[in-house]
Amino acid sequence: MTGTAQHEFFGVTERAREIGDKVERFVREKIAPYESDKRRDHHGGPTEELLHEMRGLAREAGVMTPHIMEDGSHLSQVDTAYVLIRSGLSPLGPLACNTMAPDEGNMYLLGHVGSDFLKERFLGQLVSGDARSAFFMTEPADWGGAGSDPSMMKTICRRDGNHWVVNGRKTFITGAQGARVGIIMARSEEEGAEGACMFLVDLPDPAIRIDEVPNTIDNSMPGGHATITIDNLRVPADQMLGEAGEGFKYAQVRLSPARLSHCMRWLGACIRAQEIAVDYACRREAFRKQLIDHEGVGFMLAQNWIDLKQAELMVYWCASVLDTGDLGTTESSMTKVAVADLLMRIADNCVQVMGGTGVTDRTIVEQVFREIRAFRIYDGPTEVHKWSLAKKLKKAWKAEQ
Questions:
Q1: 3-state DSSP call for residue 343?
Q2: Could you read off the pLDDT of 243-291 as tens digits, one per residue?
Q3: pTM of this structure
Q4: Residues facing 212 on adjacent strands
Q5: 6-127 maps to which CATH number?
Q6: Rounded Cα–Cα distance for residues 23 and 203 (Å)
Q7: Can you give the C-alpha Rg of the chain in angstroms?
């Protein structure tokens, strides 16, 4: 697989190599053929029928949720990188193997913060792949709610006996349609519990209304990205995730590795897009020679190879930082910015090399291009991460004066 040797430098375990290589074979041989399957919903995402069929194959192959062990423990982030990159070799691979957002991040958060009760009630069905989940944080701009700035959160929760009552709106909630587990973030103004709170809920719930599921540039995830109204949702107090008022801290527990996981999966997709583009350029002839022998084409593919190596290096570097126990917000921001930009250039070059074929659905290249474009926004736009990094530079400068 072109572009994967950094794992040797960062010490991927033999166990992870065995798992990752098994995942790669499964995705290439069993899941890639589904890329032309016509079972898609109104916005182009895989239907639940298609998802369940692919997950059935993953269970048979022993690659369902491969980064979480039978005892509930997780692979290290470095080992996870080796596995998730390979699951991403097809846009459908992470769905089939249950390594896709938002489920992967939600499982990570619940595993690290959830009580034994919450893990038993909600986590098992996610790890098994029997249920999908959604993470309710972003809010509509026309409502003045939280987007990249979670401190603007307007969804409110208040105590009512042994329950909390939640009211508000959410938007771009990936996979909400069809999800069976939700993690809802809301703001408390209760004395002694001020701040953000998180709640685990069963879905669907009549108090959670899907207003619309817009068509978006990406369509790799079932359920789309819904806009939601939450109207007097009653949640038992024991379904609060962690402590009241600590929601922003828990969000960082989830978001830092989740950003990195996105990088892992889409790196795998770009590795595959590069393979397709190289194959095309070596087979196609123009002006009496193969396309790859034209510098304008060959140089793009050579740059892609370089960019793949740089992206891989960033992924493993950030993973190694997270494995030290550091929250890794700085490193995950840097990696998200750098890898998203590198992968965007790779995907664009692949489309360009393939010409007219590159913008058709005859291969996954055009989809990878669309997915990477969306990735540059999701989990924090590039500009927000750069702004955060600039603030840290300023803070460090002040400390030195």
A1: helix
A2: 999 999 999 889 889 999 999 999 999 999 999 999 999 999 999 999 9
A3: 0.94
A4: 227
A5: 1.10.540.10
A6: 30
A7: 21
